[in-house]
Design goal:
By secondary structure, the protein is of the alpha+beta class. It contains four helices and four strands. Helices cover 36% and strands 17% of the residues. It starts with a helix and ends in a 21-residue tail after the last helix.
Length: 107
């Protein structure tokens, strides 16, 4: 419940819930970084538990799980489809370049 409340207050556009050694989690982060999307990356057992994940994503069976604007959209493939649908013209969800130092956890 705490994690849900903090998410609602965060106002972040894209939220990625991932786990260590997960290629699709890495691809989701890379897509957000290269497109300069404002995003938050949360890692299993550091930022949330499996129980908290199941509260937020009751039907989740794979990683990552991604929310866009508070809506559960699925995993990396769904994020890619969301991105492709919007194209590079939309700057609505992008953060300014160099806002975060290299190696930071994201937006």
């Amino acid at each position: 419940k705490e994690i849900t409340q903090s998410i609602q207050r965060s106002g972040k556009m894209i939220e990625i819930y991932g786990k260590p050694q997960c290629p699709f989690c890495d691809q989701a982060k890379l897509l957000c970084q290269t497109q300069r999307y404002e995003f938050t990356y949360k890692q299993l057992d550091e930022d949330f538990s499996r129980e908290e994940l199941m509260e937020i994503f009751p039907t989740a069976r794979t990683f990552p799980q991604i929310r866009v604007n508070g809506e559960n959209i699925g995993g990396f493939q769904e994020l890619k489809k969301w991105h492709d649908k919007r194209g590079n013209l939309s700057k609505t969800y992008k953060r300014p370049e160099n806002q975060y130092p290299a190696g930071s956890k994201g937006g």
